[in-house]
Amino acid sequence: MGVCIFCEIIAGRAKASVVHADDSVVAILDHKPATAGHVLVIPRTHVAGLADADDAIGTAIWRAARRVSAALRASGLRCEGVRLSLADGEAAGQDVFHLHLHVVPRYPGDGVVVTADWKKRSRDLLDQDAALIREALAGHPGQARS
Ligand SMILES: [Zn+2]
C-alpha cells in the first residue's frame, strides 16, 4: 500500500488549506474544487470506507459537515445551497481510500453536473429491491430472491 495523502495531511507532512480541525476530523479545501469553497471533511482515523467507519466517526464527520455548511453560507463565497456527497468504493467514484465527505457550495449556473438515468422503476421492482435490502439489514442477504 502506498502513502495515504490524507494521513500525510493530518500528520502535517503534506500541504492543505485547512478550514477546521478538532480531535476527530480535519476539514480541508479540495485542491480540484467543483466550486470555490469545496471542502473535504476527513476523519483523523484512517478508515477506507463506510464499512470501517463506526458511529463515532459518522457523528464527527456529520457534525463538522453541518458546521462547515453553515460557515460556507456565511463566508462570502458564493453558496446558495450545499451538496454533501460521499463516495464509498471505486465504482462510486472514490479516489482517495481514506473516507471523506464532500461539502460542495452550490448556486444556479455553477456548472456542477450530477447526472444519472433517473428512469422510473415499477412498484413491483421497488418492492423487490426493498425486500433484498431489508433482508440484508436483518443479516440474511439474498433470501428474498427465492
Ligand atoms: Zn489515511
UniProtKB/TrEMBL annotation:
GO terms for biological process: nucleotide metabolic process. A motif (Histidine triad motif) lies at residues 98-102. Pfam families: HIT. Residues 5-113 form the HIT domain. One of its GO terms (molecular function) is catalytic activity. The active site is at H100 (tele-amp-histidine intermediate). InterPro entries: Histidine_triad_CS, Histidine_triad_HIT, HIT-like, HIT-like_sf. PANTHER family: ADENOSINE 5'-MONOPHOSPHORAMIDASE HNT1, HIT FAMILY PROTEIN 1. This is HIT family protein.
